[in-house]
Structure formats: structure tokens, C-alpha cells
Amino acid sequence: MIQCEGLVKIYKTDDLEVVALQGLNLSVSDGEMMAIIGNSGSGKSTLLNILGGLDRPSAGQVRVGPWDLLKASDDDLVKYKRDTVGFVWQNNARNLMPFLTALENVEMPMMFSGKLDRAYAKQLLEWVGLKDRMHNKLTQLSGGEQQRVAIAISLANKPQMLLADEPTGSVDSRTSDMIMDIFRRFNRELGLTVVIVTHDLSLAGKVDRVVAIRDGLTSTEFIKRNPNLDNAPSLHGSGGGLDEVHEAYVVVDRVGRLQIPKEFLQALDIKDKASMEFDGEKILIRAPKSLEGETA
Ligand SMILES: Nc1ncnc2c1ncn2[C@@H]1O[C@H](COP(=O)(O)OP(=O)(O)OP(=O)(O)O)[C@@H](O)[C@H]1O
Ligand SMILES: [Mg+2]
246-250 and 59-64: which strand pairing? Predict the structure, then answer.
């Protein structure tokens, strides 16, 4: 579904350049439900905005299904945004109309694409648990309820892929669970591909795969442990942080590059060079010999 290779995004402001993505690789299969984690400023929203057709990459490849988002014309992007992808924003005020009812809000994107389907709009609101609130104006709904309206809106045009930027950022854990269950249901029942950006590691237990972004590059992947292989009871229990549920892998790109965590580099005082050795089983990365004496 998603294929990014060497994706670069540079923001230019006056005389400053910010490299938000610096050659990022990512692939996501059709029908997968995965999460992206990373520190503030690591490039998560930048990546999601590019995948959502809201922003253009500076260089590299980015394909979603049949669409080449680097080469797509502006008209193509409008069509892409309308038909292929649903988006839940970090700040949901961006796609909500406060003085319309929940139902009218969900019907809005349907009207833009000329496919108003009131029955389906009602169905969506029922699925997100707002059956009794659909005729209320958004100003009369709580933050968590508004967030669920935003999810119904994002699904109004039956997209193949849903991109959600911190969808549970401002709701309590019960609503957060409910939102994740909604995503899982659409993923299972309709084959929707779901990409969630989150700070919340407890959500990580609810997806199949977590990709960590560090400084605009994918650095680590966490893949769900097969519950049949190691009977980890935590899989079905509450919490389920990354370590309990997932196996961690460092990402190695096509030309063999990998990112060494800053803490490791600092601990060994490795700056711009390291020595590497292969002992037949393991690869050992060390501070250069000449430095070892100095740091010892
Ligand atoms: N429009 C912009 N103009 C200039 N710089 C930007 C712009 N948008 C983002 N950046 C910069 O790009 C980098 C990545 O930002 P991004 O919003 O993708 O981070 P993020 O991982 O989503 O962070 P957060 O978790 O805080 O939402 C940051 O250094 C940010 O300051
Ligand atoms: Mg962000």
C-alpha cells in the first residue's frame, strides 16, 4: 500500500532550512494496521502529511497504491485525498464544523465528492458509538465525542487507507481504547490499511507493527511476537508496552545503513568513526582504537 524510499522533506523558512525527513524508508502492506512513534520533532506529522497528499516531498520516492505522490499533479492530489485516503488530524478542529450537527459533518465530505449517502453516514456514527448524539451540534459534544466524529468523517468516502495523527492524544484511556477498537474493526472487516502516529506506547500493543522514527529516519521496527511461539500472557492483558509484546529490530536500508542510537554512541564516545568487526556470528561496533586509550 505504502512504499517510501529515500524520502526527503526540507522546510525552507527565510534563511533557515529544516530537514524534517532525511531519506526515510517505509513500506506498509495492504490491510496492515501499524503505528509510528518518535520524539516530538522527529518528522512523524511531516511523513503523515506527505502520505495524505497534504504536503509535497522534496525528494525521494513515495507511492501509495497506484499513486506516485512525488509526480502527481495538483488535480490528481485532490482526487487522491478525496477517494483514497482518510485523515484524522493531530488537532481535529481542522476538519470539524462546530456549528453543524455530527451527521451534517459526516455528510460534508460525501457532498464534496457528489456521493451523499445519509444511511452510511448514520451507520458510521453508530459504529463510533454516537447513535444518540448524531443530531447534536459539535459544540454540544465532548472532546472525545468530537474526536469520534472526526474518525467517522475520515471514513465517509470509504478510503482504502486511514492516516491518524495522535488520534487519542486528548482523550481518556477508555475513549482511547474505544477509538483503537473502531480502527481495528474497520481494519478487519473492511480491509482498511491503518497508520497511526502516537506518543502512547500502550497503544503499541494494539497494532501489528510499530516503526520508530528518529531524526527523520526509520530507526527501529517492533514486530508483534507470535503468541503461539512464546506464550506471553501480557498479550491479552492490560498495558502491553512495546517490550512485552513486540520484538525489536534495527532497520537496515537497501545499501546497508543503520542508525545507531545516540545513547550508545555517547556511551562509547563514538563521534564520526567507529571500528567494525565481524566474528562469524556477530558484528561488533566499537570506538576507534586510537580513542579507546583516551576515553579509558
Ligand atoms: N511548516 C514547517 N516549516 C518549517 N519547519 C517545520 C514545518 N513543519 C514542521 N517543521 C519542522 O520539521 C521537524 C519535524 O516536524 P513534525 O511536525 O513532523 O514533528 P512530529 O514528529 O510530528 O512532532 P510532534 O510529536 O511534536 O507532533 C521539526 O523540526 C519541525 O520544527
Ligand atoms: Mg506531529
Answer: unpaired
